[in-house]
Amino acid sequence: MDKAKMIVVGITGASGSIYGVKLVETLLGMNFLVHLVVSNAGWRVIKEELGWNTSDREAALQEHFGALPGKLVYHPIADIGASIASGSFLTHGMIVMPCSMGTLSSIANGTSDNLIARAADVMLKEGRPLVLVPRETPLHAIHLENMLKLARLGVRMIPAMPAFYFGPQTIDDLVAFLVGKVLDSLGIEHALFRRWGDQDEQQGE
């Protein structure tokens, strides 16, 4: 498959697993090939926040994503021999959504202690797009310093801060907005939210 249609997605143990799930749904709906890695803490949050039965993780993924047109490749968090751990494996980029402060620190310091951190390190060393969606509050100086360090390396920081100018009516509207901002940063077209100025253009038609 064309590398432009292959995306690596990491879901960590930060609150907000709904963001990562919506991202995967959206990419698969666009017929992308998604290489997915979920941390152990990420699986726990998915179970607690979304009510998934995660006793059989691959079965849970098939249940929730199997009917979508794209292809999902699941990699266990400890599989450091996975394809996405190598720089010779070409992809469009990587998104960690949501990104815990522990994962952020691991990426910022190059520890590569699990597959999410290693795959992110590959994106950095190969100069490929890397997008992190930090989800924590309040933030202390170490969090902010790690974000600044990565931002200076070209990592896109898109904190989980949904906007309200487009008139969201549901939680899903807020989630879709943030997913849309992530896709914008990678140049992937979508229609997940109404953009500022769209209403004025429609009124002028």
UniProtKB/TrEMBL annotation:
FMN binds at G13, A14, S15, S39, S100, M101, G102, T103, R135. GO terms for molecular function: carboxy-lyase activity; flavin prenyltransferase activity. Coiled coil: none annotated. It is an enzyme of class 2 (transferase). Residues 5-186 form the Flavoprotein domain. Dimethylallyl phosphate binds at Y165, K181. Its EC number is 2.5.1.129. Signal peptide: none annotated. Belongs to the UbiX/PAD1 family. Flavin prenyltransferase that catalyzes the synthesis of the prenylated FMN cofactor (prenyl-FMN) for 4-hydroxy-3-polyprenylbenzoic acid decarboxylase UbiD. The prenyltransferase is metal-independent and links a dimethylallyl moiety from dimethylallyl monophosphate (DMAP) to the flavin N5 and C6 atoms of FMN. HAMAP family: ubiX_pad. This is Flavin prenyltransferase UbiX. It comes from Paenibacillus mellifer.
